[in-house]
Automatic annotation (TrEMBL):
Organism: Pseudomonas panipatensis
Signal peptide as annotated in the record: 1-18
Protein name: Tetratricopeptide repeat-containing protein
Keywords carried by this UniProt record: Signal
Top-rank taxon, per record: Bacteria
Length: 320
Protein backbone atom coordinates (compact mmCIF):
# COMPACT_ATOMS: atom_id res chain seq x y z
CA UNK A 1 0.00 0.00 0.00
CA UNK A 2 2.81 2.37 0.89
CA UNK A 3 4.61 1.80 -2.39
CA UNK A 4 1.42 2.22 -4.35
CA UNK A 5 0.85 5.57 -2.68
CA UNK A 6 4.27 6.71 -3.68
CA UNK A 7 4.17 5.30 -7.18
CA UNK A 8 0.94 7.13 -7.92
CA UNK A 9 2.68 10.38 -7.03
CA UNK A 10 5.64 9.77 -9.30
CA UNK A 11 4.02 10.72 -12.59
CA UNK A 12 3.46 14.33 -11.63
CA UNK A 13 6.12 14.82 -8.95
CA UNK A 14 9.14 14.52 -11.19
CA UNK A 15 8.17 17.69 -13.04
CA UNK A 16 8.94 19.69 -9.91
CA UNK A 17 12.49 18.43 -9.44
CA UNK A 18 14.26 21.01 -11.60
CA UNK A 19 12.18 23.97 -10.43
CA UNK A 20 13.55 24.37 -6.91
CA UNK A 21 16.36 26.75 -6.04
CA UNK A 22 16.44 26.44 -2.28
CA UNK A 23 18.93 28.20 -0.07
CA UNK A 24 21.32 25.99 1.92
CA UNK A 25 21.00 24.92 5.53
CA UNK A 26 22.32 27.85 7.60
CA UNK A 27 23.95 26.07 10.56
CA UNK A 28 26.81 23.69 11.26
CA UNK A 29 25.95 20.21 9.95
CA UNK A 30 28.93 18.27 11.28
CA UNK A 31 26.91 16.62 14.06
CA UNK A 32 24.40 15.18 11.59
CA UNK A 33 26.65 12.72 9.81
CA UNK A 34 24.84 9.40 9.47
CA UNK A 35 27.01 7.81 6.84
CA UNK A 36 27.38 4.05 6.60
CA UNK A 37 26.05 2.00 9.48
CA UNK A 38 25.48 5.13 11.58
CA UNK A 39 22.07 5.60 10.00
CA UNK A 40 20.66 2.24 11.07
CA UNK A 41 22.12 2.58 14.56
CA UNK A 42 20.59 6.03 15.04
CA UNK A 43 17.31 5.33 13.21
CA UNK A 44 15.11 4.79 16.30
CA UNK A 45 16.19 8.14 17.72
CA UNK A 46 16.02 9.99 14.41
CA UNK A 47 12.44 8.88 13.81
CA UNK A 48 11.24 8.80 17.43
CA UNK A 49 8.73 11.57 16.78
CA UNK A 50 6.87 9.24 14.41
CA UNK A 51 6.73 6.31 16.82
CA UNK A 52 7.78 2.97 15.38
CA UNK A 53 8.91 3.60 11.80
CA UNK A 54 10.64 0.80 9.83
CA UNK A 55 14.21 1.14 8.63
CA UNK A 56 14.21 1.08 4.80
CA UNK A 57 16.62 -1.79 4.22
CA UNK A 58 16.63 -4.45 1.49
CA UNK A 59 14.37 -6.75 3.50
CA UNK A 60 11.78 -3.99 3.78
CA UNK A 61 11.99 -3.26 0.05
CA UNK A 62 11.48 -6.93 -0.81
CA UNK A 63 8.63 -7.30 1.67
CA UNK A 64 6.77 -4.29 0.32
CA UNK A 65 7.34 -5.34 -3.28
CA UNK A 66 6.04 -8.86 -2.71
CA UNK A 67 3.04 -7.56 -0.76
CA UNK A 68 2.03 -5.01 -3.40
CA UNK A 69 2.57 -6.31 -6.94
CA UNK A 70 0.52 -3.48 -8.48
CA UNK A 71 2.76 -0.92 -6.84
CA UNK A 72 5.81 -2.83 -8.00
CA UNK A 73 4.54 -2.72 -11.58
CA UNK A 74 4.00 1.03 -11.40
CA UNK A 75 7.42 1.49 -9.82
CA UNK A 76 9.21 -0.39 -12.56
CA UNK A 77 7.28 1.50 -15.22
CA UNK A 78 7.99 4.86 -13.60
CA UNK A 79 11.77 4.77 -13.45
CA UNK A 80 13.05 1.22 -13.59
CA UNK A 81 14.88 1.65 -10.28
CA UNK A 82 13.46 -1.56 -8.88
CA UNK A 83 11.71 -4.30 -10.81
CA UNK A 84 11.18 -6.71 -7.92
CA UNK A 85 14.31 -8.81 -8.28
CA UNK A 86 15.89 -9.55 -4.89
CA UNK A 87 19.34 -8.73 -6.22
CA UNK A 88 18.13 -5.17 -6.96
CA UNK A 89 16.71 -4.56 -3.51
CA UNK A 90 20.01 -3.75 -1.80
CA UNK A 91 20.95 -1.12 -4.36
CA UNK A 92 17.51 0.47 -4.20
CA UNK A 93 17.49 0.47 -0.40
CA UNK A 94 20.93 2.10 -0.37
CA UNK A 95 19.64 4.95 -2.55
CA UNK A 96 16.61 5.41 -0.33
CA UNK A 97 18.76 5.49 2.79
CA UNK A 98 20.94 8.12 1.17
CA UNK A 99 17.90 10.34 0.67
CA UNK A 100 17.09 10.04 4.38
CA UNK A 101 20.70 10.90 5.25
CA UNK A 102 20.31 14.12 3.28
CA UNK A 103 17.08 14.97 5.10
CA UNK A 104 18.69 14.48 8.49
CA UNK A 105 21.83 16.36 7.38
CA UNK A 106 19.85 19.35 6.17
CA UNK A 107 20.47 18.95 2.43
CA UNK A 108 16.80 19.53 1.72
CA UNK A 109 16.95 20.44 -1.97
CA UNK A 110 19.06 17.39 -2.76
CA UNK A 111 16.80 15.18 -0.66
CA UNK A 112 13.76 16.30 -2.59
CA UNK A 113 15.45 15.93 -5.97
CA UNK A 114 16.96 12.52 -5.26
CA UNK A 115 13.85 11.25 -3.50
CA UNK A 116 11.52 12.16 -6.33
CA UNK A 117 13.95 10.65 -8.82
CA UNK A 118 13.49 7.28 -7.13
CA UNK A 119 9.79 7.45 -7.86
CA UNK A 120 8.97 5.15 -4.94
CA UNK A 121 9.90 5.29 -1.24
CA UNK A 122 11.87 8.44 -1.92
CA UNK A 123 8.63 10.36 -2.21
CA UNK A 124 8.16 10.31 1.56
CA UNK A 125 11.54 11.82 2.58
CA UNK A 126 11.34 14.18 -0.40
CA UNK A 127 8.09 15.70 0.85
CA UNK A 128 9.33 15.64 4.43
CA UNK A 129 12.30 17.73 3.28
CA UNK A 130 9.93 20.14 1.56
CA UNK A 131 7.83 20.61 4.69
CA UNK A 132 10.97 21.40 6.71
CA UNK A 133 12.27 23.86 4.16
CA UNK A 134 8.90 25.56 3.90
CA UNK A 135 8.54 25.95 7.65
CA UNK A 136 12.01 27.18 8.52
CA UNK A 137 13.85 28.41 5.43
CA UNK A 138 11.34 29.63 2.84
CA UNK A 139 12.18 33.26 1.97
CA UNK A 140 8.66 34.61 2.45
CA UNK A 141 5.13 33.65 3.46
CA UNK A 142 3.91 33.25 -0.10
CA UNK A 143 6.61 30.71 -0.88
CA UNK A 144 6.05 28.94 2.40
CA UNK A 145 2.36 28.57 1.69
CA UNK A 146 3.00 27.46 -1.89
CA UNK A 147 5.36 24.71 -0.78
CA UNK A 148 2.98 23.49 1.92
CA UNK A 149 0.07 23.50 -0.48
CA UNK A 150 2.16 21.47 -2.92
CA UNK A 151 2.78 18.84 -0.25
CA UNK A 152 -0.95 18.63 0.38
CA UNK A 153 -1.59 18.34 -3.36
CA UNK A 154 0.82 15.41 -3.68
CA UNK A 155 -0.91 13.46 -0.96
CA UNK A 156 -4.39 14.46 -2.08
CA UNK A 157 -3.73 12.73 -5.38
CA UNK A 158 -3.22 9.48 -3.49
CA UNK A 159 -6.68 9.58 -1.88
CA UNK A 160 -7.22 6.92 0.80
CA UNK A 161 -3.72 5.50 0.21
CA UNK A 162 -2.43 8.37 2.34
CA UNK A 163 -3.01 6.14 5.34
CA UNK A 164 -0.27 3.78 4.17
CA UNK A 165 2.62 5.84 5.54
CA UNK A 166 2.61 7.67 8.91
CA UNK A 167 5.19 10.26 7.84
CA UNK A 168 3.28 11.11 4.66
CA UNK A 169 0.05 11.25 6.64
CA UNK A 170 1.53 13.46 9.35
CA UNK A 171 3.20 15.74 6.82
CA UNK A 172 -0.13 16.45 5.16
CA UNK A 173 -1.90 17.20 8.45
CA UNK A 174 1.03 19.33 9.60
CA UNK A 175 0.99 21.36 6.38
CA UNK A 176 -2.73 22.00 6.77
CA UNK A 177 -2.33 22.99 10.42
CA UNK A 178 0.40 25.50 9.63
CA UNK A 179 -1.64 26.99 6.80
CA UNK A 180 -4.72 27.15 9.04
CA UNK A 181 -2.77 29.30 11.50
CA UNK A 182 -1.97 31.90 8.86
CA UNK A 183 -4.92 31.95 6.49
CA UNK A 184 -8.14 33.89 7.21
CA UNK A 185 -10.89 31.89 8.90
CA UNK A 186 -13.21 31.96 5.84
CA UNK A 187 -10.43 30.47 3.69
CA UNK A 188 -9.68 27.79 6.26
CA UNK A 189 -13.36 26.89 6.47
CA UNK A 190 -13.76 26.82 2.69
CA UNK A 191 -10.84 24.42 2.36
CA UNK A 192 -12.27 22.17 5.05
CA UNK A 193 -9.15 22.18 7.20
CA UNK A 194 -11.07 22.44 10.49
CA UNK A 195 -12.65 19.05 9.86
CA UNK A 196 -9.82 17.42 7.92
CA UNK A 197 -7.02 18.08 10.41
CA UNK A 198 -8.62 16.31 13.41
CA UNK A 199 -9.85 13.49 11.15
CA UNK A 200 -6.35 12.89 9.81
CA UNK A 201 -4.76 13.09 13.25
CA UNK A 202 -7.35 10.66 14.61
CA UNK A 203 -6.39 8.24 11.84
CA UNK A 204 -2.72 8.46 12.79
CA UNK A 205 -3.43 7.99 16.49
CA UNK A 206 -5.76 5.07 15.81
CA UNK A 207 -2.69 3.18 14.57
CA UNK A 208 -0.09 4.80 16.81
CA UNK A 209 -1.76 6.17 19.96
CA UNK A 210 1.53 7.41 21.36
CA UNK A 211 3.03 9.13 18.32
CA UNK A 212 4.61 12.27 19.83
CA UNK A 213 4.37 14.49 16.75
CA UNK A 214 0.70 13.76 16.13
CA UNK A 215 -0.19 14.33 19.78
CA UNK A 216 1.67 17.66 19.91
CA UNK A 217 0.10 18.77 16.64
CA UNK A 218 -3.34 17.88 17.98
CA UNK A 219 -2.69 19.98 21.08
CA UNK A 220 -1.54 22.86 18.91
CA UNK A 221 -4.62 22.49 16.72
CA UNK A 222 -6.89 22.77 19.75
CA UNK A 223 -5.15 25.94 20.87
CA UNK A 224 -5.13 27.42 17.36
CA UNK A 225 -8.87 27.03 16.96
CA UNK A 226 -9.52 28.59 20.36
CA UNK A 227 -7.21 31.46 19.44
CA UNK A 228 -9.23 32.22 16.31
CA UNK A 229 -12.83 31.64 17.43
CA UNK A 230 -12.77 31.65 21.23
CA UNK A 231 -13.36 28.97 23.83
CA UNK A 232 -17.14 28.80 23.62
CA UNK A 233 -17.43 28.65 19.82
CA UNK A 234 -14.44 26.35 19.71
CA UNK A 235 -16.05 23.91 22.11
CA UNK A 236 -19.55 24.02 20.64
CA UNK A 237 -18.65 24.09 16.95
CA UNK A 238 -15.32 22.31 16.69
CA UNK A 239 -15.15 20.20 19.84
CA UNK A 240 -11.91 21.75 21.09
CA UNK A 241 -11.13 22.77 24.65
CA UNK A 242 -8.28 23.81 26.90
CA UNK A 243 -8.54 20.50 28.75
CA UNK A 244 -8.07 18.52 25.54
CA UNK A 245 -5.16 20.74 24.56
CA UNK A 246 -3.42 20.03 27.86
CA UNK A 247 -4.13 16.31 27.61
CA UNK A 248 -2.65 16.00 24.12
CA UNK A 249 0.55 17.75 25.10
CA UNK A 250 0.84 15.72 28.30
CA UNK A 251 0.52 12.50 26.28
CA UNK A 252 3.11 13.74 23.78
CA UNK A 253 5.63 14.52 26.52
CA UNK A 254 5.05 11.14 28.16
CA UNK A 255 5.86 9.48 24.84
CA UNK A 256 8.96 11.60 24.20
CA UNK A 257 10.08 14.61 26.19
CA UNK A 258 13.15 15.44 24.11
CA UNK A 259 11.60 16.82 20.92
CA UNK A 260 12.16 20.59 20.62
CA UNK A 261 9.04 21.15 18.55
CA UNK A 262 6.80 19.69 21.26
CA UNK A 263 8.01 22.21 23.81
CA UNK A 264 7.78 25.31 21.65
CA UNK A 265 4.40 24.24 20.29
CA UNK A 266 3.20 23.95 23.87
CA UNK A 267 4.65 27.36 24.68
CA UNK A 268 2.74 28.83 21.74
CA UNK A 269 -0.44 27.06 22.82
CA UNK A 270 -0.13 28.44 26.35
CA UNK A 271 0.19 31.94 24.94
CA UNK A 272 -2.80 31.49 22.63
CA UNK A 273 -5.10 30.32 25.41
CA UNK A 274 -3.88 31.90 28.64
CA UNK A 275 -1.95 34.97 27.50
CA UNK A 276 0.25 36.42 30.22
CA UNK A 277 -1.32 34.24 32.92
CA UNK A 278 0.91 31.31 31.93
CA UNK A 279 3.87 33.34 30.70
CA UNK A 280 6.44 31.77 33.02
CA UNK A 281 5.30 28.28 32.10
CA UNK A 282 5.62 29.16 28.42
CA UNK A 283 9.12 30.56 28.99
CA UNK A 284 10.10 27.37 30.80
CA UNK A 285 8.92 25.32 27.84
CA UNK A 286 11.03 27.37 25.45
CA UNK A 287 14.04 26.96 27.73
CA UNK A 288 13.52 23.20 27.68
CA UNK A 289 13.42 23.28 23.89
CA UNK A 290 16.70 25.14 23.49
CA UNK A 291 18.41 22.88 26.04
CA UNK A 292 17.91 19.84 23.79
CA UNK A 293 20.95 18.77 21.78
CA UNK A 294 19.80 18.39 18.16
CA UNK A 295 20.13 14.98 16.52
CA UNK A 296 19.12 16.20 13.07
CA UNK A 297 19.03 19.33 10.96
CA UNK A 298 15.30 19.47 11.64
CA UNK A 299 15.88 19.61 15.37
CA UNK A 300 18.60 22.24 14.93
CA UNK A 301 16.11 24.43 13.10
CA UNK A 302 13.53 23.83 15.81
CA UNK A 303 15.98 24.76 18.57
CA UNK A 304 16.94 27.93 16.69
CA UNK A 305 13.26 28.79 16.28
CA UNK A 306 12.64 28.23 19.99
CA UNK A 307 15.59 30.50 20.77
CA UNK A 308 14.05 33.28 18.69
CA UNK A 309 10.69 32.82 20.41
CA UNK A 310 12.36 32.97 23.82
CA UNK A 311 14.31 36.12 22.98
CA UNK A 312 11.18 37.80 21.67
CA UNK A 313 9.20 36.85 24.78
CA UNK A 314 11.95 38.09 27.08
CA UNK A 315 12.15 41.39 25.23
CA UNK A 316 8.41 41.92 25.56
CA UNK A 317 8.66 41.20 29.27
CA UNK A 318 11.50 43.67 29.71
CA UNK A 319 9.56 46.44 27.95
CA UNK A 320 6.60 46.24 30.32
Amino acid sequence: MRLLLLALLAAFSLQAVADDNWKPFPYDQSAFDYSGDKLRAAWPRLTRGFGSYPFPDADWVIKMASSHPEALSKTAAANGAFSGKPEEAQAYAAKLQEVWRKVFHGDFAEAKKDGLALGVGGQVPAMFAQVLYAMFLAPNQDEKQRLLEEVISYTDQAGPLLNADPIAQFGRAYAKARLAEELPVPVVLKRGYTSEIPKELDAILAKQPNQPYALALYGGYQAGVIRKVGKMVGRMTYGVSTDKMEQFFARSFRASDDLPIGHYEYANALGYIYGDDQQQKALDQLKQAIAIKPSTAMEALEVAHAQKLLQSAQQRTAQR
